[in-house]
Specification:
Elements: H1 29-42, H2 53-57, E1 63-67, H3 73-81, E2 86-90, H4 94-107, E3 112-115, H5 119-126, E4 132-138, H6 156-165, E5 166-176, H7 179-190, E6 195-197, H8 215-222, E7 228-234
Parallel strand pairs: 1-2, 1-4, 2-3, 4-5
Antiparallel strand pairs: 5-7, 6-7
Length: 236
């Protein structure tokens, strides 16, 4: 995702760095059908600007924003398990967007809305301040090479943007299977103003039950790979 500016609310312009790669991928018939039939119902556009999500969803409810939902399996599971909550998902890859939309249609869920663009632009331009209960960032690209670390989405400007969009008491929940990136996340968040870690030791929390376990993660567990969860709460 790119760090972007929120000029409408007087925020400083942030360094623009793409933290994702537009992967080529074939869209299946089912995914295309999801895009064709689901986008008019669930899709939102960056150009629509700042949204009143109570109006968008037709109710007041706890609201979660997921950055980069991949193929949408976890987001679909969370939405199914918590019909009393609303979810806003952002993903740049069309096959994943189509897969999620197809799932929403198939399960007749109405508590999810979707953007298909840069998530940080959505946060800056479309999400009112202090309007989110949770922001989720699960398994972002770790950008392993040192010269690419600047592309990692978790940077001080990211932490500040998310803090503004969370309600006081709201949570930023991140997870990664790359320990050096987990350490980088900790370094950034431990000095980010206005946050407190929910980890007892100030580092990582046990895997929260509300985060669905992906097939990728199960495969990693069988191979002995670790996953690190971090939770930080907005204090003010």
């Amino acid at each position: 995702m790119s760090e972007t500016s929120d000029t409408a609310q007087g925020a400083p312009r942030l360094r623009t760095v793409k933290s994702f790669v537009m992967r080529a991928g074939r869209t299946t018939e089912g995914q295309q059908r999801g895009l064709d039939q689901g986008w008019p119902r669930f899709g939102l556009e960056l150009e629509q600007g700042c949204q009143d999500f109570d109006q968008v969803f037709g109710r007041q409810a706890p609201r979660t924003f997921e950055i980069g939902f991949g193929m949408g399996h976890s987001l679909l599971e969370m939405a199914r398990s918590a019909p009393e909550q609303d979810f806003i998902g952002v993903e740049v890859h069309k096959p994943g967007v189509g897969a999620l939309l197809s799932g929403l249609l198939g399960e007749q869920l109405d508590n999810v809305r979707v953007y298909s663009c840069d998530a940080l632009e959505v946060l800056a331009r479309c999400v009112p301040d202090a309007s989110l209960d949770r922001v989720l960032l699960f398994f972002p690209d770790p950008w392993h090479k040192s010269r690419h670390h600047k592309r990692r989405i978790v940077q001080p400007a990211f932490a500040e943007l998310v803090r503004r969009k969370l309600r006081v008491g709201g949570l930023l929940h991140m997870a990664t299977d790359w320990e050096p990136y987990a350490e980088h996340m900790l370094e950034v968040m431990n000095v980010a103003p206005g946050y407190a870690s929910l980890a007892e030791d100030g580092r990582y929390v046990p895997r929260p039950p509300e985060r669905p376990v992906t097939k990728f993660e199960r495969r990693g567990e069988r191979l002995g790979h670790g996953v690190w969860d971090l939770k930080f709460q907005r204090q003010h």
